[in-house]
Specification:
Pfam family, one: Amino_oxidase
InterPro entries: Amino_oxidase (IPR002937), FAD/NAD-bd_sf (IPR036188), Zeta_carotene_desat/Oxidored (IPR050464)
Protein name: FAD-dependent oxidoreductase
Strand content: 15-25%
Shape: globular
Radius of gyration: 22 Å
CATH architecture of the largest domain: Alpha-Beta Complex
CATH topology of the largest domain: Polyamine Oxidase, Chain A, domain 2
CATH class of the largest domain: Alpha Beta
Distance between the termini: 10 Å
Organism: Nocardiopsis alba
Length: about 450
């Protein structure tokens, strides 16, 4: 096929699809190339034997917390059906002293306890108040307060229970971060912006709802890997075993290390920033159960932080996240490995991952092993951005660079470890690509071989 094209986007996760959507709305011709057989990236949902298996842990806070995401949801009409994006009741619990303590991350938890002593709850309220009054911007973590301290430093002066039972497990469990290596500014900004877990929502039809809705409106080619990106006089050439393609500009909507592999010509402040962008590997195990199960004492909600296990950080009760996640009378759980567990089990076969993580979860769900009827392990070498001091120091120059033929999108652009960071990056990528194309000659044509 031949025809005019302005932009090729590499990667059909939320960042790439949101970027392609915005560029298309701006009148540009766009094609999205995805190496996997389906869209979604780290927001992909598998459909297995009647189950909706979210490969990640997507939750949607309020529009104040996730403005770019909610703008896109409304633009696509996904909120027309009130039941399509339901609230998750309770949402988060903390495992302590043999049972799950609910209301974590909610103002109500400061009254009911959530496994913390009165002194710890008072200290938590003080810490959150201090962070709420700090100069924190989730889209610009290199600015303002806390740019020179780690998460471990931030929590060092907090009450031990706050550090060890709640905020430490939150950072290591949800984001996969070693606390001493992760910068405090992105964590604190995300924590403050996300607000109460009482407002968390999910997608009824799977976490890939947004990517699928975007892909339906775009020119997306799955099973189309890109192996190299090369700037040439007449555009940017994308090499692929499926056939090369040349476009006026390219957006690499892939993790920073992957972008560097694809685009060896990168240099200057771009290379400095991309080289500084580290990632935390993530490992998540989905268990198909012959009956619904939940951790003891959990009450309502679906996610339980586990602070006292070397391999296991989070248990999610997916059939409570939304009943459509599992067939009636059956259950679906996900076990999220700790940073240590992700490292130790990264190369282990699936059956070994299932055995060890299930054994760790047995004390939360006695008899769990006897109800498992299947398991799927989800491995992400580049799980979530791990913001370190080098990345924060290099980001200002990266943001200020002039528009160019090759640009980027993804959660690593703002070092914000969530889908909002990915979706919000589309605005910047679109503005930069539009400015570059406006200054360039007329769009060239696709060349496929």
């Amino acid at each position: 096929m031949t025809g005019p094209i302005d932009v090729a986007v590499v990667g059909a996760g939320p960042a790439g699809l949101a970027t392609a959507h915005a560029l298309t709305a701006a009148g540009r011709s766009v094609r999205v190339l995805e190496s996997a057989e389906a869209v979604g990236g780290r927001m992909r949902t598998l459909r297995v034997d009647g189950h909706l298996v979210d490969t990640g842990a997507e939750m949607i806070p309020s529009a104040n917390a996730y403005p770019a995401t909610w703008r896109l949801i409304r633009e696509l009409g996904l909120d027309a059906d009130p039941s399509a994006i339901p609230r998750v009741r309770g949402a988060l619990s903390v495992w302590w002293a043999g049972r799950a303590r609910r209301n974590a991350g909610r103002p109500l938890g400061l009254l009911t306890g959530m496994g913390l002593s009165p002194a710890a709850r008072l200290d938590l309220a003080r810490l959150l108040g201090r962070l709420g009054g700090a100069d924190l911007d989730p889209e610009h973590p290199e600015r303002g307060d806390l740019t020179d301290v780690s998460v471990a430093d931030l929590l060092e002066s907090a009450h031990p229970q706050v550090r060890e039972r709640l905020l430490g497990p939150l950072a290591s469990g949800f984001f996969g971060w070693p606390l001493e290596r992760a910068a405090a500014a992105p964590f604190a900004a995300h924590l403050v912006a996300s607000g109460s877990t009482a407002h968390w929502r999910t997608y009824r039809d799977g976490m890939d709802t947004l990517p699928r809705a975007l892909a339906d409106r775009l020119d997306v080619r799955t099973d189309h890997p890109v192996t190299r990106v090369v700037e040439e006089e007449d555009g940017v050439r994308l090499e692929s075993p499926r056939g090369d393609l040349t476009a006026g500009a390219v957006v690499l909507a892939v993790p920073a290390p992957v972008a560097m592999e694809l685009y060896p010509g990168i240099g200057g402040v771009e290379r400095a920033y991309l080289e500084a962008c580290e990632y935390a590997p993530m490992l998540r195990l989905s268990l198909f159960l012959d009956t619904p199960m939940a951790p003891r004492g959990r009450g309502r909600g679906f996610a339980v932080l586990v602070s006292d296990d070397p391999l296991l950080s989070v248990v999610t009760v997916d059939h409570d996240k939304h009943p459509g996640r599992a067939p009636r009378g059956r259950g679906l759980l996900s076990l999220v490995a700790s940073p240590r567990g992700a490292r130790e089990l990264a190369e282990a076969p699936d059956h070994e991952v299932a055995r060890r993580l299930t054994e760790s979860a047995e004390r939360l769900l006695p008899g769990l092993g006897g109800h498992v009827r299947g398991a799927v392990a989800h491995r992400f070498r580049h799980g979530l951005p791990l913001p370190g001091p080098k990345a924060l120091a290099a980001r200002a120059a990266f943001v200020a660079r002039p528009p160019a033929a090759v640009d980027y999108a993804g959660d690593w652009i703002s070092l914000r470890p969530c889908s909002e960071g990915a979706v919000a990056s589309a605005t910047t990528a679109t503005e930069r690509v539009t400015a570059f194309l406006a200054a360039a000659r007329e769009p060239i044509r696709i060349e496929e071989t």
